[in-house]
UniProtKB/TrEMBL annotation:
Lineage: Archaea, Thermoproteota, Thermoprotei, Thermoproteales, Thermoproteaceae
Domain of life: Archaea
Transcription regulator AsnC/Lrp ligand binding domain sequence ranges: 5-76
SUPFAM superfamilies: Dimeric alpha+beta barrel (SSF54909)
Listed name of the protein: Transcriptional regulator, AsnC family
Pfam families, A to Z: AsnC_trans_reg (PF01037)
Pathway(s) annotated for this protein in UniProt: Amino-acid biosynthesis
Length: 84
């Protein structure tokens, strides 16, 4: 199961939160973005219960994390070769 977690953080904590997120084994990518959210995390989990535990016990407990919104990926289409 793949999910995208949209995260809002306290001002000035972006880099430290990104560093902590990168240490979570289930996290495959962390993106700093501009817009209504500060960070987007791509993560993988075996099932919905484990996904909930990762978000509840690992991501939301990182100092500086204010809120999360999670989207579960229904289908993925990946481009072959370089993106440009």
């Amino acid at each position: 199961m793949e999910a995208l977690v949209f995260i809002n953080v306290d001002i000035g904590t972006e880099d430290s939160v990104m560093e902590q997120l990168s240490k979570v084994p289930e996290v495959s990518a962390v993106f700093f973005v501009y817009g209504p959210y500060d960070l987007i995390v791509k993560l993988n989990s075996d099932d919905a219960e484990k996904l909930r535990a990762i978000i509840r016990d690992k991501i939301r407990k990182i100092p500086g994390v204010r809120s999360t919104t999670t989207l579960i990926v229904a289908k993925t289409l990946q481009r072959a070769g370089p993106p440009y």
